[in-house]
């Protein structure tokens, strides 16, 4: 098996590196260290700059203003960005946008797609509710047709990017009498529509999430995406576009830990000479390579026109649990210093691994829990009956 890049891919990778080198300021670096799922003001500027220079549309078809590049190029781009923890346009570009291309009306395509590519429009994803997470189809938020409008009432939770987005990509119930998967529809709701309230929700990893409340929110009927009551099908389609994943964020955590081991001397002996530390790091390094192969496999499948499904679940479980193993190893290797937060001048590696320790449980939930992923593997991968 030959994993080497073609000369064109290498040259593209160099261009991405050059772009990052030119635009990654110390201030932006500090901001992206603070935020994990959210984008701060500098991150937003960076996304817009990428938009102006055509970097947001790498994988989008040319007819919608993209570069029409293949999945391996997109993967290379994501990997370079992940290595620096930089934002890449997230689910607006990689999930909602491609779904709009396929099922949106002509007006929606003209109104939203070009402005997504310039970074002007950003969607927060409004699926989860307080009583509908893994069992998403039980959601209760209602959208009722009244003349040329829909009136929306309900609540969403963990709406990650709502505080810096322009719109919500909302899944709501339009037919309460239909079977629960069948009565759902997707809407585009401007975040500043009267009746929308975004409230901060603190997470243990210090990242901000949100609750979003909808009280008699009236939107034009033209903001319905595709056909009424086909929302479940569109959500499944949107999830299929999310299957390209980078592994470099995890590699970066391990590199931080290796830097610490190389630069720290305990009782006159560098930690990097300590057998227990070396074995722990080598073990994690093997696993990071495995993660890279899982992520490259998904990219390659997409390049070949396949949809990684079980493979995406395998990657997600392995990535989130490897983040946990790195965070736990950091506690072991750094001792009490591992608990110091970024604000403390004595915190090793600017508190990044301390933060990872508080954030790793989130990775096991975001994008579907690991238990649900294991059910998918058992059912679709191993051919077992529905659990
Ligand atoms: C960091 C982060 C960002 C997120 N961003 C967004 C976002 O932007 N938009 C959005 O809509 N949502 C978002 N979510 C929500 C996420 O999709 C849900 O947390 C996830 O789907 C799980 O739902 P839940 O939290 O209600 O947990 P539940 O579904 O209540 O699960 C609780 C526990 O029960 C287990 N469980 C549930 N059902 C089964 C089953 N059938 N078999 C075995 N075990 C089961 C779960 O694995 C879990 O351990 C985000 C979550 C996190 C942590």
Describe the protein.
With 387 residues, this protein is an alpha+beta fold. It folds into three domains: 82 residues, Acyl-CoA dehydrogenase/oxidase, N-terminal domain (Butyryl-Coa Dehydrogenase, subunit A, domain 1, Orthogonal Bundle), CATH 1.10.540; 112 residues, Butyryl-CoA Dehydrogenase, subunit A, domain 2 (Beta Barrel); 134 residues, Butyryl-CoA Dehydrogenase, subunit A, domain 3. Helix content is 47%, strand content 15%. It is built from twelve helices and ten strands. It has a four-stranded mixed β-sheet. It has a four-stranded antiparallel β-sheet with strand order 2-3-7-6, with no helix packed on it. The longest helix has 29 residues. The chain is globular and about 80 Å long. The chain binds flavin-adenine dinucleotide. The site of flavin-adenine dinucleotide has 19 residues, from β1 and α12.
Mean pLDDT: 94
Number of strands: 10
Shape: globular
User: In percent terms, what proportion of residues is strand?
Assistant: 5-15%
Ligand inventory:
flavin-adenine dinucleotide
What CATH architecture label of the largest domain applies?
Answer: Up-down Bundle
What descriptive keywords fit this protein?
47% helix, Butyryl-Coa Dehydrogenase, subunit A, domain 1, 3 domains, binds flavin-adenine dinucleotide, alpha+beta, 387 residues, Butyryl-CoA Dehydrogenase, subunit A, domain 2, four-stranded antiparallel β-sheet
């Amino acid at each position: 098996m030959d994993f080497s890049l073609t000369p064109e891919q290498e040259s593209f990778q160099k261009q991405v590196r050059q772009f990052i080198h030119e635009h990654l300021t110390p201030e932006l670096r500090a901001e992206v260290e603070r935020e994990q799922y959210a984008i701060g003001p500098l991150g937003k500027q960076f996304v817009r700059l990428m938009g102006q220079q055509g970097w947001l549309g790498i994988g989008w078809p040319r007819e919608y203003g993209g570069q029409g590049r293949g999945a391996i190029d997109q993967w290379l781009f994501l990997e370079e960005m992940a290595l620096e923890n930089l934002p890449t346009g997230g689910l607006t570009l990689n999930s909602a946008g491609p779904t709009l291309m396929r099922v949106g009306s002509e007006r929606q395509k003209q109104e939203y797609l070009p402005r997504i590519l310039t970074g002007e429009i950003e969607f927060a994803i409004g699926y989860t509710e307080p009583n509908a997470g893994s069992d998403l189809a039980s959601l209760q938020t209602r959208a009722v047709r009244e003349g040329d409008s829909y009136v929306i009432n309900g609540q969403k939770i963990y709406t990650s990017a709502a505080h810096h987005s322009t719109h919500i990509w909302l899944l709501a119930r339009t037919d309460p009498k239909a079977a629960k998967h069948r009565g759902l529809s997707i809407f585009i709701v401007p975040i500043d529509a009267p009746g929308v309230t975004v409230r901060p929700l603190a997470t243990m990893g210090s990242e901000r999430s949100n609750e979003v409340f909808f009280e008699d929110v009236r939107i034009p009927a033209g903001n319905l995406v595709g056909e009424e009551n086909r929302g479940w099908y569109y959500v499944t389609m949107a999830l299929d576009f999310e299957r390209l994943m980078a592994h470099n964020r995890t590699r970066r955590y391990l590199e931080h830990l290796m830097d610490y081991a190389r630069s720290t001397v305990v009782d006159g002996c560098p930690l990097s000479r300590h057998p227990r530390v070396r074995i722990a790091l080598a073990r994690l390094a093997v696993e990071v390579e495995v993660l890279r192969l899982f992520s490259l496999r998904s990219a390659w499948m997409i390049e070949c026109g396949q949809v990684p499904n079980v493979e995406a679940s395998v990657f997600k479980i392995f990535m989130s649990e490897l983040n946990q193993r790195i965070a736990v190893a950091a506690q072991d290797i750094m001792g009490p210093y591992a608990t110091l937060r970024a604000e403390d001048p004595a915190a090793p590696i600017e508190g990044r691994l301390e933060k990872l320790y508080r954030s790793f449980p989130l990775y096991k939930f975001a994008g579907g829990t690991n238990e649900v992923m294991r059910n998918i593997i058992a059912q679709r991968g191993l051919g077992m009956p529905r659990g």
